[in-house]
Amino acid sequence: MRAAALPALLSLATLLGVVGCARTVGLDVRYPEAAANRAMLASVGSRRVEIRSVTDRRIDTARIGSKPDNGKNVVTSRPVTDVVREALLVEIGKNGHAVVIERGDVVLAADVEEFWLDTVTGYGTTQYVGKVVFALTVIDGRSGDSLATRRYIGIKRRQVDKPADDVAREVMDAALARSMRDLATDRALVAAFARATTAAAPR
Amino acid sequence: MRLMRMTLLVLLVGSLWGCASSAPPPQPAARPFDNVRRLAVVVTGDSRLTVLEHSAEPGRTFDEVLSWTPYKSLLQPLAVLLHKGINWLLESDSTEAAGRDLAGIAPKAAVSIAFAQALAASEQFQEIRMLEREPVGEDRRRVDAIVRLSVPAWGIVRVREGDPDLLSGFADVRAEMVIRGTGVLVWEKAEDVTDPERLPLESFRKDSEFTRHHLLDVLTRAGERLANELVYARSAGR
Are A154 and A180 in contact (CB under 8 A)? Predict the structure, then answer.
């Protein structure tokens, strides 16, 4: 019985290892909370912010790039809409606003227009260029008035000796972070948040 | 039995070890500087116009690139146009000119002007002064901190392989902010800034005016990006 269990246990251990590492097949792009600061967006009094929709408007929604050596698709481990939504949640929350699922003072709708990783191969080097573009519509949650439409572009370029998934992910992480930092320091967005009618304000 | 347990342990540790190597390094602690109200911006260092064709060593100048690149025949006309169209930018890019002529578009001047304008627009600072050199005397005493800004490289880089390849303008910029009097470094940033638009070489080659505008756009974008990063970092750690 014990002798028979050994191959099964070994197989299980191997399977666990394979499953654990299989996550690296899709790039786990994210915007960590530790990387976010309170910025200009925190200069507005706290708002209830509802992220109503994050829509994928990319032409090619099946991948975020292709590997130069074999042409295989580069993909994210989660839908790019989830990646952007989560990044927005982090940035909005870090700036002191309450993210709610309904009846927000401010309603946000985001369209992901580009989420792409270019890989340029040279002699002994590889250059990654990550690009994230999304449009953000800001709506007054009480009146339904459109307050602003803004577009944010984050680009990161990095050259390495050897291509690696980790580097590709870091490049996309950085591109996403740059777009979020531009968002958090955008005066027009701050002004839109300030104009939004709050529950305390008279209608 | 003991051997079996040890084997399993080694396998499990081994399988987890492979995954653990992808953990990101810890973020360095940031130092807030939201008491800094009056800034001096000083441009520093040399700027090199560069084509990063990315098939050999980076950081070469046009002339160096042209001496070896397989695209020599294609790049030569571009180089001529660039030399005609933007040489006056390079020539005017001295430390003296950078701060004096606010309408100028020398690389360092273009970046520093966009940087200062974006900082001013943010309304996070009381006073931003662009200076030709390190402030001295009363000029130095009236600022809280000094931002030293440089543009080590700028030009055109290949960003997408294809037929044709696509290129974009780029600017690699650096900035550091030190507190006046103590010299304590409170912020530093190196940014690789790439223009969002990607075009075939032909677009740059056939129209020097377009090339000039494209490069100015990316230099402006570089200044704005640096400013956004500075504003973003202002309350870091709070």
Answer: yes
CATH of B32-233, one of 2.60.40.10, 3.40.50.2000, 3.40.309.10, 3.30.160.150: 3.30.160.150
CA dihedral A181, A184, B178, B226 (to 10 degrees): 50
Token pair for B193: 């800034």
Partners of residue A146 on adjacent β-strands: A139
| Among candidates A13, A122, A129 on the partner chain, residue whose Cβ is nearest the Cβ of B8 | A13
- Chain B residues whose C-beta is within 8 A of a chain A C-beta are 1, 4, 7-8, 11-12, 14-16, 18-19, 22, 24, 27, 30, 52, 54-56, 58, 121-124, 157-161, 170, 192-194, 196, 225, 228-229, 231-238
Q: What is the CA radius of gyration of chain B?
A: 23
**CATH class assigned to A29-195:** alpha beta
Q: Which residues of B touch A11 (CB under 8 A)?
A: none
The answer to whether the CB atoms of B235 and A42 lie below 8 A apart is yes
Question: What are the residue ranges spanned by the domains of chain A?
Answer: 29-195
Q: What is the pLDDT along chain B (238 residues), one digit of tens a residue?
A: 565 565 555 554 444 444 444 444 444 444 678 889 999 999 998 888 777 665 544 444 444 444 444 445 555 555 544 544 343 334 444 334 333 332 234 899 999 999 999 999 999 999 999 998 999 999 999 999 999 999 999 989 999 988 899 999 999 999 999 999 999 999 999 999 999 999 998 888 888 788 888 999 999 999 999 999 999 998 765 5
Residue A169 in contact with residue A28, Cβ under 8 Å? yes
pTM, rounded to two decimals: 0.79
The ipTM (two decimal places) reads 0.84
